[in-house]
Design goal:
The chain has about 350 residues and is mainly alpha-helical. It contains 15 helices and no strands. Helix 1 runs antiparallel to helix 10, helix 4 packs parallel to helix 6 and helix 10 runs parallel beside helix 13.
């Protein structure tokens, strides 16, 4: 792993404290999510957390590492929460477990555990599952659907058959599909004004989930657990490219507000792309990394074949992070920058 040159300033904070604060920062988004779709998301968080802890314990046991010390650091729980929030809330339990176990076993522990993984484990889980189970990963609750906790549990556990009324496309996917099928005869403004799935400027209800992630992300920044570089570059790049195409053809391209508050943009900007292990470490590197994530996320979600592009964008930039860090190292203390 590449480090910036000395001098170093050490923070009096442990891994478990950092992970606890990340979970706290996710609470506003989770609360809005639960208000929107019901308690199903809380059930998925519990399922993912249990799967993550069991998978981590098994791998630690195989490697002969102490269970208590590593299980209590909270990193597995944070990964589990991000997976649960990225997956459809009514996804079958085994799909969430499969993604979580793959993330912990393959994307994290087989690389050496915490601090050694080159890719974001939660995004690996999403990418693997959407490639392997595209239909299940595309089934999101329809707008206005009301199910009791018991019914939601039955759907998740497989006791209630999944019917078309229980699922639909995300606002991002619905917008992209409608514009492609319309072939110029349907415009963005008409879709936003005439379909219940959309709210004031993004997906109805999902706008508030994104606001919750934004509030939590700003709190992480205020606590100095993340720096401004990655979120600012991510959001800035997303606004620039979406704004440029929106100004060029507002009938076929949605506004920057739609892209900022739809899908996983806010979750990705503050909680995923800011991962210090799989991301960049230098200030300039973080700016490049964040901008690359925002740019690729837009390209994939608008022109690609997947409902959202944040996961694949982050993974592609994870591949580039070592080279970016190498090329953006600050000058050695006391020496001039040759550039």
């Amino acid at each position: 792993m590449m480090f910036a040159p000395a001098p170093y300033l050490l923070k009096d904070v442990s891994v478990s404290q950092v992970m606890t604060q990340v979970c706290i920062a996710l609470v506003p988004g989770i609360a809005a999510y639960a208000w929107l779709v019901g308690p199903a998301i809380l059930v998925q968080i519990v399922i993912a957390s249990l799967a993550a802890l069991l998978a981590e314990a098994l791998m630690l046991r195989i490697q002969g590492k102490p269970l208590a010390m590593f299980l209590s650091d909270g990193s597995a729980v944070v990964t589990a929460w991000l997976i649960a929030l990225a997956f459809p809330p009514l996804a079958p339990w085994w799909l969430v477990v499969t993604g979580t176990v793959f993330a912990i076993v393959v994307a994290k522990q087989l690389y050496g555990g915490l601090g050694q993984n080159p890719f974001n484990p939660a995004m690996i889980a999403f990418a693997v599952c959407i490639v392997a189970f595209p239909a299940l990963m595309s089934q999101w609750p329809s707008v206005g659907l009301q199910l009791s906790l018991v019914d939601q549990m039955n759907v998740i556990l497989g006791f209630m058959p999944r019917v078309d009324a229980l699922s639909g496309a995300t606002p991002l996917d619905a917008m992209k599909t409608a514009l492609k099928l319309g072939e110029g005869s349907v415009d963005v403004a008409h879709l936003l004004a005439n379909q219940d799935i959309y709210g004031n400027f993004a997906g109805r209800g999902w706008e508030w989930v994104a606001v919750g992630y934004l509030v939590g992300g700003l709190w992480l920044f205020q606590r100095k657990l993340i720096t401004w570089h990655v979120p600012t570059a991510f959001i800035g790049a997303l606004v620039v490219i979406s704004g440029a195409l929106w100004l060029y053809n507002p009938a076929q391209f949605a506004s920057p507000l739609f892209h900022l508050f739809s899908g996983a943009a806010m979750l990705g900007a503050f909680f995923i792309a800011t991962d210090p292990v799989s991301g960049c470490t230098t200030p300039r590197g973080k700016l490049i990394f964040g901008a690359g994530c925002g740019l690729l996320a837009y390209i994939i979600r608008v022109f690609g074949g997947y409902p959202d592009g944040v996961a694949f964008a982050v993974l592609l930039m994870n591949l580039s992070a070592p080279v970016i860090d190498l090329l953006t190292q600050p000058p050695i203390f006391g020496m001039k920058d040759k550039a």
